[in-house]
Amino acid sequence: MSHDHDHTDPPSDLELRVKALESLLLEKGLVKQDALNAIIETYEHQVGPKNGVHVVAKAWSDLSFKQALLADGTATVADLGYVGRQGEHLTVVENTSDIHNLVVCTLCSCYPWTLLGLPPVWYKSAPYRARAVSEPRAVLSEFGTVLPEHTDIRVWDSTSEMRYLVLPERPFGTEGWSESQLQALVTRNSMIGVELVRHSGGGSNERRP
Amino acid sequence: MSLFPDQPTENGEPVFKEPWEAQAFSLVIALHESGVFSWDEWSDALAQAIRRDLHPGGVEEVVQRVSEAVAEDAGEDEGEKTSERMEAKEDRRDSYYQNWLAALEQLAIAKGLSGAGELAQRVQAWREAYLATPHGQPVELVRG
After folding, report:
1. Contact criterion met (CB < 8 Å) for B123 and A31
2. B19-33 and A33-47 helices, crossing angle to 10°
3. What does the pLDDT look like over A58-101, one tens digit per residue?
C-alpha cells in the first residue's frame, strides 16, 4: 500500500467536531482534562473488549483460524464482522514461551478499539507511552507481570494505519475447554500485553525452569 | 444506568460504538457536574436535536419508528423483518450520538461557551493540522 508521507489523513467530521469542542472548552477552563478522564474511565469497560475476547478464544480453539489471523489479521477479523471504521489495518502478534508482545502508541492513543473498546486512561498517559518503549520490563512488573529473563519482549508502536492485538498464551490446564469457557479467561490487559492470561483452577501459565 | 431515553445501553450501562461518542458523552457529564447547565436544559437540547433529526423525514418516519418499536415489543422474530429491524436499530444507535453532539454544540453556543464561528474555525484548524502534519508525527494545533 502506498502512503503520502507529507500529511496525516484527518479523521471523520464527527471526530473533528468533538476535538474542536473539547479543545476549546479545555482552553477556556470550562472542563478539566482530569474530570474527562475520570468519566471515560468509568465507562471504558462498557464498550468492552468482547470482540477481542471472541477473537482470542477462537484462535486458541481453532488452529486454522489462528494461522489465518497471524497471517492477515485485518481480513480474518473482518470475516467475523470486526472492521475498523477508518480502514486501519490489524496485526496480531502471538505470545509464546520465548516472546512477549506489548502494544503502545507512542504518539497519541491509537488502539484497536473495534476489538477492545475504549482505550484505558493509562494507555493514553505520557508515562506509559514513553516507558513502554524505554523500560518495558519495569512497566510490566507494575502490572504484576514478571517475565523470565530470557523472554524476548517486543514492543509494537501503533499508528493510525496499523493497530496491534496481542494473542496471549493459552494457559496450561485448559485442554479440552470450550471456546466460551476460554473466553471467560481473556482480559483486555492481556490483549494489550501488560498481563498474562491466568486461570485460577490450575495455578498460572508462568513457566518454571 | 440509562441516563436518557433511547440512549444505547447494554446490561443497563451506556455503550459507545466509537471513542468520539464517549468523548462527547464525557464533555456533557463534565459540563453538567461543573454547573454549566442543568439536566433539564440538557434533556431539552437533546430532545430538540433528536426532533430536528426526525423531522426531515416528516410524520411518516415517526410513525414508522413507532410501529417498529411496537413490533419489537411484540417479539415477532422472523427472517428479513428481524434483520430490517436490526438495521433500523443500528441506525438509531448511530444517530444517537450524532444528535448528542449537535445538541452539545447548540447548547455550548447558546450558553456563550463558544461562538459558532469560533467552533467552525476550530474544526477547520484541526483538519488543517492533520493535513499539515507529516505522516507518523503527533498532530498538534498550531496557534496563530
Report:
1. no
2. 130
3. 999 999 999 999 999 999 999 998 876 566 799 999 999 999 99
Read off φ and ψ for residue B38, nearest 5 degrees.
Answer: -90, 165
Distance CA B116, CA B123 (A): 11
Q: Which of A62-71, B35-44, B45-54 has the lowest mean pLDDT?
A: B45-54
Cα distance from B123 to chain A (closest Cα, Å)? 5
Q: For a pLDDT cut of 70, what percent of chain B falls above it?
A: 60
Q: In terms of C-beta density within 10 A (0-12 exposed, 13-18 middle, 19 or more buried), how is residue A131 classed?
A: middle
Q: What is the pLDDT of residues A28-48, one digit of tens each?
A: 999 999 999 888 877 666 556
The answer to whether the beta carbons of residues A106 and A129 sit under 8 Å apart is: yes
ipTM of the complex: 0.73
- Domain(s) labelled CATH 3.90.330.10 in chain A stretch across 48-192
- The shortest CB-CB distance from A107 to any of B15, B132, B138 is to B138
Question: Which among A7, A11, A31 has CB closest to B133?
Answer: A7
- State the virtual CA torsion across B65, B69, B74, B76 in degrees, nearest 10: 60
Q: Do B101 and A7 lie within an 8 Å CB cutoff?
A: no
* A48-192 CATH choice from 3.60.15.10, 2.60.40.180, 3.40.1550.10, 3.90.330.10: 3.90.330.10
Domain ranges of chain B: 9-113
